[in-house]
Amino acid sequence: MDLSLRSCKKFVHLDLKGAPPRIGYLIELIQLFADLGANGLLVEYEDMFPYEGELKVLQSTIQPPYSREEIVSIQDAANSRGLEIIPLVQTFGHLEFVLKHEVFRDLREVDYCLGTLNPHRDGGDRLVQDMLQQIMKLHPKSTSLHIGADEVYMLGLGDESKQWLSVPGRSGHQLFLSHVIKVAKGIQESSPNLKLIMWDDMLRSMSPETIKVLSYLVLKMLDYFTFTFPVMLMERYTSAGMSQQWAASSFKGSTTVHTCVTSTQRHVDNHLQWLKVASSLSADIELQGIALTGWQRYDHLSVLCELMPVGLPSLASCLQTLVHGGFTEEAQKKVVKTLGTVDVGDTERLSSRTSCSFAGAKLAELIVKLTSLLESTELRHFQNNMFVRGWFTPYHKQKKTVSPLIAQQIKTQAKMILDAVESQVQEVRGEMCLLYLDSTVQEWVVQHVTPVLEPLHNLLRDTETVLNEMGLCTESIS
Questions:
Q1: 26 and 53, same domain (yes or no)
Q2: What is the pLDDT of residue 51?
Q3: The whole model's pTM is what?
Q4: How confident is the model at residue 346 (pLDDT cuts 50, 70, 90)?
Q5: Number of structural domains the chain divides into
Q6: What range defines the domain where residue 295 resides?
């Protein structure tokens, strides 16, 4: 049984750039994380932070950001349970929430990519340092800061970067490292004791000699979910002077960009793999902790991933897997005792309502049921059934040779299905409003429900139109 991951810190990633919970629910979640074995929070505010001054434009206009008082209350709740907080602030890639604004447009590496910062502009350096300073000023007890720096797409493709790279001896690796070093030194001038962490993906193709320039500035966090676990890569970082490393797993938000229901087994398997990796590491590697990521969006502009209530059984199971060194009987008992279930997809257990009492359990149950209905063959392929394809094709409608009997039958069936779905949608809306702001509820429905129901609504309107033209139907269809 491996002790390196069992004994290291376990941080739950709170991705607030999508579906930020109401503050009361968020504080409930923090208590639950502590109950399940977490030691800290990796908090990614993005546009939900109350930036001030020139950066006030970064605040979300879709929903109000957390107030300064609310951010203090988040820290108070965490501190009361012994949870550390590490803010995560993107400083190079994934800056869509910043660079989408016209006032910062000239800081993009290339104009059509909203995510990558131009590393050559003084304005970009000032922007990043201002963001970091404002975040850390409101987190005075935090001793570590995550500076992101992953997936810096398009780096080197801007005109200024091309000119910089045209000098013999310079490389894209050096371009990346020069910006990270500048960011790290800038924040450490004001906070010399602050430990800095960054994602490692941009470093994976670099030699140990190249990476050594970062060894005294930042710790690496290896984020692996779908890839083969790189023991050799971790050893290579150690040879570059980076013996202290972090791991990053996943408890939700990493299956597909639009997943609604979390697969607990998939994510538990991820943590079992990490346990195997940790057990095979040399004594030279000091594993500082593991962050259990729970992405709410793939990036600022993408669709919502699984909401937190649906991912809680997965998070609980993953945390307990780390606590016990495997998904043992004791781990499973702890999850069931705390949540009442180990898998939100277990509709039989969830629907029993006898034991599932975790914060958000009812919403999780309703989302599972609604998603199952939305993905049903009857709903997804209604437009391809025998009656629609045989008697209600575009040709029939164009030539007005529709069978009224068949049209009425299609209309009746379509309306029956839509009524059943919309009844469940209203239940989801009502429960979701208790935990999230109305803007999140509207976004979730428009992104995950509307695309599935729209073809059926169109078909219903078509049958209504045809029957009205035949003088056989007078009721309106909304």
A1: yes
A2: 98
A3: 0.91
A4: low
A5: 2
A6: 9-360
Residue 476 lies in a domain: no
Residues 320, 454: one domain?
no
The active-site residue out of 44, 69, 84, 151 is 151
Whether residue 151 lies in the annotated active site: yes
Domain for residue 213, yes or no?
A: yes
Q: Are residues 389 and 297 in the same domain?
A: no
Task: For residues 201 and 290, state if they share a domain.
Answer: yes
The more confident residue out of 346 and 86 is: 86
What mean pLDDT comes out for the span 274-278? 89
Which CATH number belongs to the domain containing residue 21 in this structure? 3.20.20.80
pLDDT in tens, 351-366: 444 456 788 999 999 9
Q: What is the 3-state secondary structure (H, E, C) of the chain?
A: CCCHHHHCEEEEEEECCCCCECHHHHHHHHHHHHHCCCCEEEEECHHHCCCCHHHHHHCCCCCCCCCHHHHHHHHHHHHHCCCEEEEECCCCCCCHHHHCCHHHHHHECCCCCCCCECCCCHHHHHHHHHHHHHHHHCCCCCCEEECCCCCCCCCCCCHHHHHHHCCCCCCHHHHHHHHHHHHHHHHHHHCCCCEEEEECHHHCCCCHHHHHHHCCCEEEEEECCCCCCCHHHHHHHHHCCCCEEEEEEEEECCCCCCCCCCCHHHHHHHHHHHHHHHHCCCCCCEEEEEEEEECCCCCCCCCCCCCHHHHHHHHHHHHHHHHHCCCCHHHHHHHHHHHCCCCCCCHHHHHHCCCCCCCCHHHHHHHHHHHHHHCCHHHHCHHHCHHHHHHCCHHHHHHCCCCHHHHHHHHHHHHHHHHHHHHHHHHHHHHHHHHECHHHHHHHHHHHCHHHHHHHHHHHHHHHHHHHHCCCCCCCCC
Residue 243 lies in a domain: yes
